[in-house]
Amino acid sequence: MNRLNQLPTLRITPSEKRSLNYRGKTVQGVAGDTVATALFANGVRVFARSLKYHRPRGLYSLDGECSNTCMDVNGVPNVRTENTLLKDGMIVKEQNVKGSADRDWLSFIDKLDWMMPAGFYYKTMHKPASIWPVAMKQIRKAAGIGVISADYQMKGQYDEMFVKAEVTVIGGGAAGMTAALAAAESGQRVVLLESRPHLGGCFDYRVSTTAEGTPLYQRARELARKVAQTGNIRTFTHTSMVGAYNNNLITAFQVGGPSDAFTERYIEIRSDSVVVATGCIERPLIFDHNERPGVMQVGCAHRMARTYGLLPGSEAVFSVGHDLGLEAAVDLFDLGLKINCVADIREDGQNPELMLALAERKIPVLKGWVAAKAHGGKKVEKVTLSTVEGTVKRQFPCDLLVASAGLTPVTGPFILAQAKMGYDSHTGYFLPTALPERMFPAGRLTGVNNPAAIEASGRLAGLKAATAAGADMGNLVVAAEKAAAALPGPERGCKLVTAPVKGRKSFICFDEDTTIKNIKQAIEMGFDVPELIKRFTSAGTGPGQGGIPGHNLPLFVAKYTASINTPVPTTVRPPLVPTFLATYAGYNHHMFKHTPLHDSQIKDGGIFRNIGVWQRARYFSEDFDCKEEILNVRNNVGLLDGSTLGKFRIHGPDALKALQRVYVSDMSKVKEGRIKYSAMCNDDGCVIDDGVVVKLGENDYYFTTSSARAGQTVEWIRYHTRFDGWDFALVNLTDTLGVINISGPNARKVLAKVVDVDLSTEAFPFSGYQEFSIQDTISVRAMRLGFVGELSYELHVPASYTQAVWDMLKEAGAEFGIRNFGVEAQNVLRMEKCHVILGSESEQRTNLLDLGLGFLWDRKKAEAKTVGAVALRQAEKEVGRLKLVGIRMEDDNRPARDGALIVDNKVRGYVATMRKSFSTGQAVGMALVESQLADIGTRLEIFEDECNGVRLYARVVKMPFYDPKGERMKS
Known about the structure:
Blueprint: E1 13-22, E2 25-31, H1 35-41, E3 48-49, E4 56-57, E5 70-73, E6 76-80, E7 90-93, H2 120-123, H3 131-142, E8 158-170, H4 174-184, E9 190-193, H5 216-229, E10 233-236, E11 239-245, E12 249-255, E13 264-276, E14 280-283, E15 295-296, H6 298-306, E16 315-320, H7 323-334, E17 338-344, H8 352-360, E18 365-367, E19 369-375, E20 382-387, E21 393-397, E22 400-403, E23 406-409, H9 412-416, E24 420-424, E25 429-434, E26 439-441, H10 451-468, H11 474-485, E27 507-509, E28 514-515, H12 516-524, H13 530-537, H14 552-560, H15 581-585, H16 598-603, E29 607-611, E30 614-619, H17 627-635, E31 638-641, E32 646-651, H18 655-662, E33 675-681, E34 687-697, E35 700-705, H19 713-720, E36 729-732, E37 737-743, H20 747-752, E38 769-774, E39 778-785, E40 792-798, H21 799-812, E41 819-820, H22 823-832, H23 869-875, E42 882-889, E43 901-903, E44 907-916, E45 923-930, E46 939-943, E47 952-957, H24 967-970
Helix pairs in contact: 4-5, 4-10, 6-7, 7-8, 10-11, 17-22
């Protein structure tokens, strides 16, 4: 196809060639092309086949609003080729076809639509039940719009960026750029996001002029230059917003260009205020065969010519409901497109200058007419036009039918941000009736279409956003409000939903092949809410994210359902635009935190694993059973790096009240010089954390949490005390303190060599707490604990001194053969004592009572409103819950794997942790089982998928397995 290479609006570079492979042949395009425009330039008109009926589908929009041009690109299915930039060497294939897109063997299904009414898969092929599994497989083979290869490896570089800005502007059209420039006048940081590869929006390709006579495309480029020259505006093009969350957290992803170091980049913006200037998309016109190749939106046809230099057809008919359609008809005629007729849905209200321009070009205009049927097989050959009442019809030949019922605002950002939406009868738009805090609309999505009004609304929104972000822009806001009020306001919108047709082949959703007839069937079955009809018929649930049916569906339901007077919009959910999981994953950096002892653990031969946000030494030899590490602790002395523990100080007049709220125990009983073990529960009574609490002084406490919860503890306590007005301070000391655990029969002897304090049992008993200094320099908080079941001291040391204390202990313990032990050895040691690790011996269903920790719960401190207490009282009355029990294998040489299922005729529980105990010579562990299996002596049947159907057996035994009286850890 010959290009219109001399147009000033072009976004392609005709001199720079690009090529792709399609159907085994090389197809030529140019720099700036998308995959779809390059294929279109080479004569491709059928890009894909539809989901259900395998109908031919062609280029309809250019912003990925439907799946019409979804293809397999470089092995990735469902790529939206209409807005995927062309790169040299791409391999493009059709998908969801048997044969080719032009000749699909399954196209006969299109004639069997009568067999597939709305929700047919819910109602048919279910009786007898044996039919459904067979039918389901066949349906899935016939449907689907792409095949995922299990062996495919994602190529490219995927980046991530976390940005802070005072103002974020979503949409880089005239309103968005004006808003960004206005906000930037405050000196604040402004982020501007635009989904297309260049700024400009609807101005970018239009040659109509402003009131001053400047072509709109020139005005767009002028604004873009100003944005580029403004130092405090950061612009991201080819960047789609995908999510909006609390406190104006905006997420997006950017597609990398030729000079970028990334393929795609995830962006997260924390913004004080947000301007939404996302503009409008076209509301599809619904008529018979309205998705045939050759049917295009107005913007698609216009941009094809002005942006890509491609006339979208040779002779055309327009069926439109807004002045943009008339403007496009005039411009495309001047570029060489033959136009046989323009049908305008509206009886009146057309721009008189555009009507005069059409008359001067002798283009027939039919007011109050609409397209009723597109004729042709694989492409449009002619069209039947009808009056909107259906009383008179006429036919016109064409290979291009430009169809649009009107405009609809892109309000997804508002809906994601929890705005209240309502139907505006003047514009015909769904607009926010209650805006989210510090979020402002601008531009065409407010209903304005006058170029000056679009810019004025953008400036006003930008100034308001800057003010909301803390700038003093009051006088400028007042002036901007006056300027906007003096310009044309929101325009009257077209209300027509569907042409006067029966609707059997009138598609409201292209992605799911949902027709008007299907919607009527759903309504006749009793579904009268658009959201339910959407689910029942699948309309709007495809790759286009509801872009095509999102506006028409509620309008049609309101019109066809007598019980609904005002259209109700359906819900939009993130991501607004589909992208790769690889983009969300980012660079996939191996990210973790190091303890103060990390380097020395490496030197000592530590084998590391990522555990939560930390990297920890799990083993210190290639023996992953850790026999020597375990026995050294049991018989001698070992050192463990426990620095990952959460460590916190809470102090202030109401510190005790806060502890009483979140801990199940009575924390008023914590005594100075002693430690108290307790647990936290959630509102369901399920244990979420445990640790010890120390009283440092009056209203001053130090406590530890599990490593996994350390990052959430502050927010957890803050959340559960947020309405009380209590006065306390909470400090996270996790990263400022290291922890060394010295354990074993010789632990006291080693520690005594480096400290000058009395470590005897009388002076420093089990569950005792002391503070002292090493060499009058290093302050230490020491606790007598027994997590591994031996004499143990847990030393909390300033992070910068932790390595020095570790080295002193190693030197002092050399004569005793002191050695490191890792997380796995600790896991086995504590398992032998049946000490619980949350997440190993618990899961989201298990509460405090299930784990045998009910003794921690003080039931008499009701005034504290302890989190989880209400649920725990209810749980005391329940039967049949999971219970934590000790188990021993009948074959001590074959311990069951962690997570192995406990079964009879169904699943009855699972093994939490089990190992071969070197201390007892037995294969023992803990399991969560249904309460009727918890009695001592009960035989348990264990299933492992590696046993080829052979079952393993264990019996419930008493806990703990090692030193049941605790004499060793208390000695």
